[in-house]
Amino acid sequence: MDFDAEKIYSPEDFRLYGHQLIDLLADQLTESQSAGDLLTIDWKSPEDQLDFWSKDFDSPLLDTPQGLFKDVLSRSINLYNPKYMGHQVPPPAPMALLGSLLSGFLNNGAAVYEMGMTGNAIEKIVTENLGLKFGFGSDASGFVTSGGTLGNLTALLSARAASTNVWDAGSGEQNNLAIMVSAESHYSVDRAARIMGLGTGGIIKIPVNDRFQLRTDLLDTYFAEARKAGKNVFCIIGCACSTSTGAYDDLQTIGEFAAKNHIWFHVDGAHGAPAIYSPLYKHLLKGVEMADSLIVDFHKMMMTPALSTAVIYKRAADSYKTFAQKAQYLWADQQKQEWHNSGKRTFECTKHVNIVCVYTLMRIYGDEVFKQNVETLYTLARDFADLVKKYQRFELAYEPQSNIVCFRYLSSNTGEDVNQKILQDLLMDGRYYIVSTTLNDVFYLRTAIMNPLTTIKHLTGLLDMICNLDL
Ligand SMILES: Cc1ncc(COP(=O)(O)O)c(C=O)c1O
C-alpha cells in the first residue's frame, strides 16, 4: 500500500467509521441492559485467542475497521453486563468514554505546559478540590498519573525524599530504610518498596484483625522491634480500602501513630477514597486528613476508563522533591515549583490527558454522580452480604465495608472444597463473572460490584446458579 497521508487523515473516513464505532458500542450497551441472558465472557483459551489473532494478523489488509472492531468487542469480556462483578474495574460511564476519545485525539503530552495547557490546569483544579474534600487544607497539591501502582510508587518516593538524600546520594545511604503496611495491602505497595531497594526486610507487614483491617494495637510493638533491629521506618501506609476484602484501615489511629513518630503517612485510597463523596460512607475515611499523601483511582469507583490516578499531597512543596532532576530540553528552571509543567512531578514524560474523562463527569453530573455511585454499590454489597447469610449453603467471610464481598459455598458431602470448581464452572458458562481470593489460607469466591445497574436480582441469580451447579 502506498503511503497516502491524506487518506490516513481523512476527516470523512474518521467521521464515517467513528459513527459506525459509536453505533456498535451503543448497541452493545443496549444489549447489556436488556433483560436477556447475555454472556459476560465468552471464554476462549489463550491458545485459541493467539491462534485467532495470529491468523487475523496474517490475513489480507482490511478495507474498513468495522469487522476488526466487532471482533475485538466480541472476543473481550463485557464489563457493561450487570452480571460482571469480578475485578475492581468499572464499566466506564459513556460520557467519560467520549472524554477519552477527545483526550486521545488531543494526544497532548502534558509534561510541559504547552503540551497540556488544558490538562495541567484541570488536574490542578481537580486535585486541589479533592484535597479540600479530604481535609488537606489550602496548601494541598496534586497531579494525575497512570494508575494506582505508579501512584503508590510516586508517593513512596516522595516520602523517602522528604526524609533522606537517597535520590542524590544513591542507595548507600538507604540501608535499613523500611515502611510499615497492612498484610492485606495491594501488591503494588510491596512492589514499589522493592523497586526502591528496600528488600523483604524493609517491608514490615502488620497482621490484620478478623475484619481484615491493620491491627493498630500492634503498631508500637512492631515499630519498637524495627528500631531495635536498626531499621529506619520512614513511612506507614493505610489502606482505604484493601483490595482482597475492601476493608478500611483505622486511618485515625494510624495517622496519630505516624505523627507521634514523625513518619510519613500515605493512604492508598485507589479503590475506596471516593467514599468521601458520600455522607453515608465518608466516616470510613475518618483520619484521612492526617495523611501526607493519598492516591485515588478515577478508573475504579469514579467510572472513568483506565488509567487515571490522582496523587494528592498535603504540602505542595513535597510533590516537587520526588524527581529532582535536570531536563534542559523540557523546562528552563528545574528548581522552580511550577504546577503547569507537570512532568516535574510525574513519573511519566508523555502522559495521556485522561483527566478530561473525570472532568467531563464532574461538569455534567457534579459530585452527585460519585455520591450515588458509591452509595449504590456499597449499599448493594451490604444487601448481598445479608442475602448470602440467608442461604444455608453459603458462608460470608466478613461484613463488607465497601462493594467487595467474599463468600464460599459449604459443600454438603466429604468436606471437599468445591469453590475452585464453582469458579471454573461459572467461567465456562460465561453469564456471570466473579473472581476469587484466599483469606487465612481458605479459598473464597470474591465479587467486586462495580456496575450501578447490577441489582439484588442479579446477585440472587448468581447464588441460585451456584446452588444448581453439578457439584
Ligand atoms: C488498593 C489498591 N491500590 C492500588 C491498586 C493498583 O491500581 P492500578 O491497577 O490502577 O495500578 C489497586 C488495584 O486494584 C488497589 O486495589
Number of helices: 17
Q: What share of residues is helical?
A: 40-55%
Portion in beta strands: 5-15%
The set of bound ligands, ions and cofactors reads: pyridoxal-5'-phosphate
Give me the secondary-structure category: alpha/beta
Which fold name fills CATH's third level, the topology of the domain at 101-365? Aspartate Aminotransferase, domain 2
* Rg measurement, Å: 24 Å
> What value does the average pLDDT take?
94
Can you count the beta strands?
11
- SSE run: HHHHHHEHHEHEHEHEEHEHHHEEHEEH
Principal-axes shape call: globular
Largest sheet: 7 strands, mixed
CATH homologous superfamily of the domain at 101-365, by name? Answer: Type I PLP-dependent aspartate aminotransferase-like (Major domain)
CATH class of the domain at 101-365: Alpha Beta
Beginning-to-end CA distance, first to last residue: 56 Å
Q: Which residues form runs of ≥5 with pLDDT under 50?
A: none
Can you lay out the helices and strands and say which pair or pack?
Blueprint: H1 5-8, H2 11-33, H3 46-58, H4 66-74, H5 94-106, H6 117-133, E1 141-145, H7 148-163, H8 166-169, E2 177-182, H9 187-195, E3 203-206, H10 219-228, E4 232-239, H11 251-261, E5 264-268, E6 293-297, H12 298-301, E7 309-313, H13 316-321, H14 355-365, H15 368-390, E8 394-396, E9 404-409, H16 419-429, E10 435-439, E11 442-448, H17 456-467
Parallel strand pairs: 2-3, 2-4, 4-5, 5-6
Antiparallel strand pairs: 1-7, 6-7, 8-9, 9-11, 10-11
The structure holds pyridoxal-5'-phosphate.
